[in-house]
Design goal:
The chain is mainly β. It is built from no helices and 6 strands.
Length: 100
């Protein structure tokens, strides 16, 4: 289910979308010099493109490294600068300069 982020200040906020996902599995490292991976199934993504594989290293609020567990529910956020977007359905975004 898509959950747009709530902007704290709409002018400072980057266009974004947040999707939910589930950690399907943790893939062990094939070599000690390579990190293990977490495979995440992103809900609302096309069936053939729903899996993401990321390095399974996150940082908690205390700066300690932690890893995801299989079955964990996660949020996947995609964001970009406003310059990288275009109006959808012919509507002018609120931050776009008006044409004269």
């Amino acid at each position: 289910m898509k959950r747009p982020r709530k902007p704290t200040n709409a002018r400072d906020e980057k266009p974004s979308v947040t999707l939910t996902g589930t950690v399907e599995k943790v893939i062990p490292s094939p070599h000690p010099s390579l990190p293990e991976k977490a495979q995440i199934a992103v809900e609302d993504a096309d069936h053939m493109y729903r899996e993401l594989r990321i390095e399974n290293t996150l940082e908690d609020e205390n700066g300690h490294h932690v890893s995801l567990k299989p079955g964990a529910e996660v949020d996947v956020t995609i964001e970009t600068d406003a310059d990288n977007t275009a109006p959808k359905n012919g509507k002018t975004p609120a931050t776009a300069p008006l044409a004269r």
